[in-house]
Design goal:
Elements: E1 4-9, E2 13-18, E3 21-26, H1 29-41, E4 49-53, E5 56-60, E6 65-66, H2 78-92, H3 104-121, H4 126-136, E7 146-148, E8 157-160, E9 163-167, E10 174-176, H5 178-186, H6 193-200, H7 206-226, H8 237-246
InterPro entries: AGP_Transferase, Aminoglycoside_PTrfase, Kinase-like_dom_sf
Domain Aminoglycoside phosphotransferase: 41-212
Pfam families: APH
Amino acid sequence: MDEVEVVVAHSERATLRVGEMFLKVDGDPAHADVEIRAMGMVPVPTPEILWHEAPVLAIAALPGQALGVLGEPSPATPAAWTAAGGVIRTLHDAPLPPWPGQRLEDMAAELDRECAWLLEHAVLPAEVIHRNREIAEAALRPWTPSFIHGDLQLTHVFVDGEEVTGIIDWSEAAPGDAMYDLAILTLGHEECLDDLLAGYGSGADRDVIRAWWSLRSLVVARWLSEHGFDPDAPGCEFDVLRARMEDG
């Protein structure tokens, strides 16, 4: 019998690996519905769906390894990052999904709310929060929507050598800002941005990507803390925020 490996587990969802199969358990059935629909639409490699019986979605494991893990150096080559950029561009150029994405005004309200929480609990120096709040403003502008993954973390993009073998975890897929995907993938790995954009091509806005680094790190800090993760671990969200202070 294959061993059961807990990949991630918190109060909202859990992912288990059993042999060459991943079991995703989610209390909100809408997440699996979006994931299944998105994987059926996107023109990029995704894992095979083995079966779905709410609240469990079973998918096949992808060959290769993830681009990396937040807080650790990426094991992937520059060529792999460039290949990832090309695949993401193909996604962003695809026809939009028919369901709505996040509204700009909701994102702005969330940023205000989370910055207030960070200041109230003094988890970072106030000047770090204020400076990153200023930087984040550049992300809060109207954009032409693209088909975005919505949670394009390093651990969600798999490569084998210089080939992208698949992208997992599509439950946040929606129309949205293409720069958001690029920012989430390079969060904490700024040194890989040039290679990623070499494959992505024209149209990327580095200032907006940096703004999303700040916004994402600010708004996710409370959720991470409340779900057993540490945003203050080396190389993670709080280090991303502190690095912005060095940018001048």
